[in-house]
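Key idea: predict the complex, not the pieces.
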Amino acid sequence: MALGVAAGLVGTFLLLRKRALTADALSHATLPGITVAFMVMVAFGTEGKSMLGLMTGAFVFGCIGVLLILGIRRTTKLKDDAAIGIVLSVLFGLGLCLLRLATEMPSGNAAGLNGFIFGKAASMVASDTKVIASVALCTGFIVAAFRKEFTALCFDENFGAVQGWPILRLDIVLMSLVAIVTVIALQSVGLVLAVAILIIPAASARYWCTKIGSLLVVSAIIGCLGGWLGGVVSALVPRMPTGPVIVLVCGGWFIISFIFGPVNGIVARQWRIWRLNRRVAMQHILRAVYEVSSQKEACDFESILKCRSWSRAKVKKLLSRLRKEKYATNTKDHWALTTSGTQEATRVVRNHRLWEVYLINYADIAPNHVDRDADMIEHVLGSSMVQKLEALLGSDKIPSSPHPLGASS
Amino acid sequence: MSWSPIDTWICIIAVLCAAACALPGCILVLRRMSLMGDAISHTVLPGIAIAFLVTGSREPTAMLIGAVIIGLLTAFLVQAIETLGRIETGAAIGIVFTVLFAIGLVLMRQAVDHVDIDPDCVLYGAVEFAYFDQVTIGSLSIPRAAVVNGIALLANAAIILIFYKEFKITSFDPALARTQGIRPNKMHYLLMTMTAATAVAAFETVGSILVIAMLIVPAATAYLLTDKYGAMFVVAICIAIIAAIGGHISAVIIPPIFGFSGTSTAGAMAVVVGFLFLLA
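Result:
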């Protein structure tokens, strides 16, 4: 559905600008707009249901709502959330009052206005669809044209200002795009839920990619699929209102992304944490074996166990992993590093000792404390960092340990 | 239009409801969590719908429990998505409440055959008709909504009086609270429970969407007028009362001037309170 695409595109910027709930206030603010437009049109003797007229009214009030929020935030000590809440509820209340009045107007038939609150995609006619499609298309073009400017607006306002772009005007363009999308969304999903199709696709897309370009595409696709699937489901299953179903489909997408998304999804993150832990453990055991075997003749299980506070089972598991990765071999209880194991262990130990020396020399940390500190940082030292340390400390060998090795460390 | 006992009752109900909402509203505004109030007042709808489907009746206690559970679920989900998903609060709230609200709408539509709860009434409120739903206590016949909202008001006042200091500390300095042995998380969920329960009590009167007007706007106005913590509650209640009475009066009196027979009291309450805010 075209609406989903447009909402996905605009929503991305909205989300990045951290204005997600402004859209909520905006959509609620459209209600008085719709009713006012209706009343004006009835007063001028037209039938009062012209889609374009209603939309104009909704758009105008949507903009007024946004301006009010900005105004409250500027002039009072209230925060964003309160400003949004106030504008949202008061304008919606105004809308309800006017709606009640509109239903009593002598001419005109206001019955359909109710539909805007919950949406009624099923009752849309072909001409409405055309309006929505063309508006969505325009939005798509505008977003494509202003992509660079909007990106700057979201991430670094000051940069944009330095570039000589009219930041305020761009902001207004963005917010009016949001208003337009909200207004066309009213018809299908209703004003309470309009905010959902703006936020959810964009928020889901965040879990799949990090580049703004791909973010836009993914978000648009999710919005589109949401609209389409929602429409299909509500058509097939009896008594399924379209708007909520669309939102539910989008919500489903969000849950899937939230769990399985490769960038920040739960599964992906747990996997990364697990991998990091595993690598850290590997480096610990390598260093333990290295240090023990550099001191003693026999590198046995007990002396490795004493190196740090780990459990027997863990040491056993790690040692067998060492063997599996061909870093170490053992004959009974005597462990020795292989060539590749020695290489890796040398690198790890070197990182550790370099950092220790650095801490002692430059951070004035007592030598018997540095082991623990170095422990935390050594795993994340990048190669460039190591090079810098080398240059600073003027050594390309493994420095000898500044503190006694052994069970106590 | 003449003033009748019905109007008096409507005013009393509206006042009780507005005052009950204003209390937790103050804390929400101070904690910059007004929009959680928004989210919870929306998600009351699925709570009520589920409670109805489970029990099959309009038992108020069942509805209350359902709504409170869903309200807490909302608070919990928002927090989970925010921390686990690394999304800003606003977006997390937006996602949670829209999805839950959509579920509520679908459930209502599914149950529409054998239901006498009206989504319109739930959403917009119908304080005008509350008078006709009466309960008898002793020899007095009192509208049920008045009782419900009165209880909500008393309960909120009691909770706030008991935990006055705790709310104060956790709102302004969670770290200090933790050192004093107060759990900010517990207070957070207590507040959420209060909000949800109040929202249920009030939704019949002002509708679930306008609950937020009654929650936030008086509190925000009070916040502008005073900078004392205790005074804020008092001012907020006063504003809420003025708004409720003013709302009903204007709903009844102003429209006839233009030839209409009256408008929605709930809507007018919101408008009046917004007007008061502008004055502040």
